[in-house]
Amino acid sequence: QVLEGMLEGASRLCPVLRVMGNLLATRCDLELLDHFCQELNVPLSLLCLAKQILESGNTKQQPWCITVLTDLLAVATVYFSSECSLEESGQKDSTQVFYESAVCFLALLPKLLAEPADSEMRLCQQSLMCFTLLCEGLDATHPSVSAPFYASLREEHKTLLNRLLQQSFLEQPALRGAAMEAQSAHAQSLPVADHFMAALAAACTIPLERNGCREAKQQVAWEVAEKLMEGESQQLGRLLGRLDHPRCSLNVLKILYAGCHASLSLCQHLGRSQQLWDSLMQLLKGEVPMAEVAQGTTCEASLYLLALLTVQLQASPPRLEEVVTLAVGFVTQSPVVSIVGSAVFLLTQLSQHGVALKLEGEEILPVVTNMLTVSAELQLPPPMGAGLYDGLFFLLLKLLAQDDVAMEQDFATSELWSMAWHRVAAVLGVGSYRAALEGDSPEAEPDWNLLSPQGTLVFLSLALFIFTRESHHCLPQLTQSHSVLVVTLKRLLSPSFLACLAQTQAGEDGDPELVPAVVIHACQLLCFPFALDVDEDTIALVTEAVRDAQIPAQLLQVCSHHLPLLHAELPMSLLCHLIVSDEQVIDQIVRAAAASEHNIAFLKSALFSDSVTLTTDLLSLLTHVARASPDHLPFLQRILKGFNVADQPLTHLLTHQQYLIRARTCNLLGNLLRHGFPQVLQSQPGLLESLLGCLVDQEESVRRAASFAVGNAAYHESCPAGTLGRAVPKLMWLLNDVQTRTRCNAASALGNLGCHWAELGNLLMESSVPHILLEVACRDPQESVRERALISLRALSQHPGVQEALLSLRATEKLAALASSDLQPTAWGSPLPPSARHCEKLLCLLAPLHSG
């Protein structure tokens, strides 16, 4: 009946539409309302009816046509602004319905705005309101819905975008209908222009969510910015002229704020505009009359625009002293957290551009406390991807760095320090402490609008500063796995968080060094106990807390997934400290590494990195793993199997130009050989030859470790005797080494060669090994060396011919003299040295032959 132009149909339809609108506006039961919309195909059916009316010449001639269209749009407006439009349903995806409805409305909007019969502009205003609320709804939806909508607005509906811009500045709209009086038109003009302005602001305002919608809207903002600067920038001048209109100020600021993010040229134009600076000062001083809430939001937007222009233009704004005074006033006096945050951010940018700020603790610390305790509701995202707390932590760091020792101590022991960690933990998405420790914390993404990736780094810099200055106050906070510090550091080093962090830095403007910097800062905090003179009990508590938080396992994943090898040095060093302090950490790391080929690949790559520190620390870590248990040998074999270096990785490391790497590799081999002669070693035939070469290395540490490894190799019958035989002269030479430990190892190794007596017995006798060991046992100045020589002599004496050789050397007399000197009374009743016992046992072994 409506399409046929019948009044009866219109009189029936309008009440129904108003009932529908009222039902949707109740928001009583979202699931029920969603089902209601599905049953009636709202709003698509209503938008289709509106389209048919606009295309029907008969209906458009009716005096009630505009009323029906306005009522249809009113229902669509309520739908677009209601949460039920995004309610998940078991049938068709509601987000898809929302998108289809939005696209349908967008195509219809130019006709709705241009309808000649709309003499009182009611349809125009309702349509613009619908568009404004649609944009606000889209900004909160998934980018798969919102991004295509804004792309369509920019690419396919440029004329609509242009019209929104042009109509925002009209003093008076074109007259529509002969019956319209001039006075009525003038009365309607400003409200309609305001609606156009609100719609334009909604189209390009930066959404709070950081996703594809923000990128799509930035393109829309760029289009608007380009239009504003066309010709002599007349449009821009008109827009700035609306800044002091109470109903328009905020929307003008939103348009400028979005445009300055998208266009550096617009920033440069605004930087030369005295009109802008004067208007911003008026707004900040409250000289433009408006409601209190609107005034607060306008102040926030004005401060952010000033900060954004400072960043984009790399220069301080005009009337600098006045700007600083106003900003400081907001910081110290405003009760609204978002306004304080925007003022703090502006001061931070001014400080970074050389403006001297005089900070007083009694003024700043209460501000910090208030900001960290009161929840913030942002109206606009901070400039250039920053966070609300970024500037706060920057100024706090600047304040504490003024060398006020008393203030540093007070802060480190204050509730504010703990409060800062709790706030950061919440912002970064840390769930309950128990859930976080059990790995069940929700995968909530960090709220980057409160603390940006760069702001996270600033906070960690603040934490490092406090740890450096007041370590004794901070270390106890690392001794409990449920403490906010440990749980937050666990979050910062979790793969899920670092993946979110890395995603924020994707693209041309991203900083590839940010993720490594966050990891390194977090590791530096965890390294403090090991870098200071801390008692063993504290070290044990810290290690236990870190272990229980599963941080060691995370560190390995972080290194393998999120760090270039160059940046893996500190995490690897931290792992070494943890392993030395707690063997349970070894099991955790081995499980984590063995569970992922990616982790194994990282460890293999690290062995041959260009970083000496990384390679040596990894070799130390593997050495501790090898020492801990033979159960870890399969894991070690996976890492040490040949790859990319002529299939001889260990051989390559034994001949490395850096002596530390040669020494650590020898040490690793020695510990591997404690458990046997694993297949990984047998598969590298040149390994023992390289190891023997290390016995005569120029570096003491290499000779010491090599003698240890050769001694353990000699103990195993599976080790090739022919190769071991070539070690005899080298080991005998090492009995004169300056290093006590090296002489001990050499003596033990010569004794272990007796395990291969069938092959090497003649060589050992011809080389006078028993004779040399006897001389060492009697004459070496170090008790430990004499003991090892005696043990080796006892072992060799089990073989034929050795005892006779010793007797021919008058061993019994020499050993008796040695035993006699060892049996001399010692001060304070000290026990006999171990060498004395071994000396007596060897004498007992030789006694039957001597008496015979």
Q: Can you describe this structure in just a few lines?
A:
The protein is mostly helical and 852 residues long. The radius of gyration is 40 Å and the shape is elongated. One of its GO terms (cellular component) is cytoplasm.
**Helix percentage range:** 55-70%
CATH H-level homologous superfamily name of the domain at 641-766:
Leucine-rich Repeat Variant
- Structural class, by secondary structure, is mainly alpha
Give a quick account of the main beta sheet: strands, pairing sense, barrel closure.
none
Strand content of the residues, in percent? under 5%
Predict the CATH topology of the domain at 641-766: Leucine-rich Repeat Variant
GO molecular function, one term: ATP binding
EC number: 2.7.11.1
Catalytic activity: L-threonyl-[protein] + ATP = O-phospho-L-threonyl-[protein] + ADP + H(+); L-seryl-[protein] + ATP = O-phospho-L-seryl-[protein] + ADP + H(+)
Keywords: ATP-binding, Kinase, Nucleotide-binding, Serine/threonine-protein kinase, Transferase
Features:
single chain, 852 residues, mainly alpha, Leucine-rich Repeat Variant, 49 helices, 0% strand, elongated, kinase, serine/threonine-protein kinase
Describe the structure.
This protein has 852 residues and is mainly alpha-helical. Among the domains are: 1-120, no CATH class; 142-257, no CATH class; 641-766, Leucine-rich Repeat Variant (Alpha Horseshoe); 768-852, no CATH class. The protein contains 49 helices and no strands. The chain is elongated and about 135 Å long. The chain starts with 6 loop residues before the first helix and ends with a helix. Mean pLDDT is 86; it is low at 87-91 and 172-189. This is non-specific serine/threonine protein kinase. It catalyses: L-threonyl-[protein] + ATP = O-phospho-L-threonyl-[protein] + ADP + H(+); L-seryl-[protein] + ATP = O-phospho-L-seryl-[protein] + ADP + H(+). Its EC number is 2.7.11.1.
